[in-house]
Amino acid sequence: MNTKDREVVRELTKKYMEIAMSEKHQKMRQRFLDTNDLKIVRPPVLIDEIPWHEMNFDGELDCVCEDGGLRGMEYGLRIALFREKYFKCDNFIEPVWVVGKSFSSTGDGMNVEETIIATDKRNGIVSHSYVDVLEDESAADNIKIPVITAYPENDKHNMEYVNDIIGDIMPVELRGHCFYWSPWDRISSLRGVEPVLIDMYERPEYLHKIMKRFADGMSAQMTQMDELGLLDGRCTSLHCTPGQ
């Protein structure tokens, strides 16, 4: 990494930590905790699911780091600072940099077959026409149970890397993961929505079989991740909702 990249990230980290350690955000983090503990407080108001490709109207989200790893850190920090500046809501800003534990999955063994109808080049969102790769009932047997592998050696390297850059400014923690699981999103991308709707009437038992295969797969994945120490209750977000 070059010195310029390093300094860019460090300066952004200092601005982030100043906000995170402010009295405002200390009280705000407590209100999130109180809300989740079912205490009678004003619930947090969030602005999420942001079309970030439309937000960079003044160049504040432009990344200048050349190093790929630092560029990712830079973008995350710029987004957090942008939220605090422009989103007048309860932005959850935690005074720690989280390094996610490394792992891989063999996946469910299925491949999406599709035709791209249109693409928004600004953010990669596309319009799809899906091929039903599960039309034949025997195809459900091709849905595999994923195998999870942890890479603690990568965790050690990643922690050292981030600590070397910002560890004297912000605490760095190694954490596991939480999951937002949406099997019907996956099923509809493997089949298309119309075949699923038709099968709700004509072959409901087949849809139950498909769903069971995916549920068994996720259950096995979660069990493996738990045994490998890859799950973590400290995740701050469950899809859109800060958890804490």
Description of the molecule:
It contains seven helices and eight strands, in the order αααβββββαβαααββ. The chain has 244 residues and is α+β, with helices and mostly antiparallel strands. Strands 1-6 form a two-stranded parallel ribbon. A two-stranded antiparallel sheet has the order 2-5. A two-stranded antiparallel ribbon has the order 3-4. A hairpin with a 2-residue loop joins strand 7 and strand 8 (241-242). The two termini are 33 Å apart. The relative contact order is 0.15.
Helix/strand/pairing class, anyone? alpha+beta
The mean pLDDT is 91
Task: Describe the sheet with the most strands.
Answer: 2 strands, parallel
Strand order of the largest sheet: 1-6
Q: How helix-rich are the residues, as a percent range? A: 40-55%
The number of helices is 7
Task: From the alpha carbons, calculate the radius of gyration and give it in angstroms.
Answer: 21 Å
Number of beta strands = 8
- Ends apart, CA distance between termini: 33 Å
| Order of secondary-structure elements | HHHEEEEEHEHHHEE
Low-confidence stretches: none
Anisotropy-based shape: globular
SS strand fraction: 5-15%
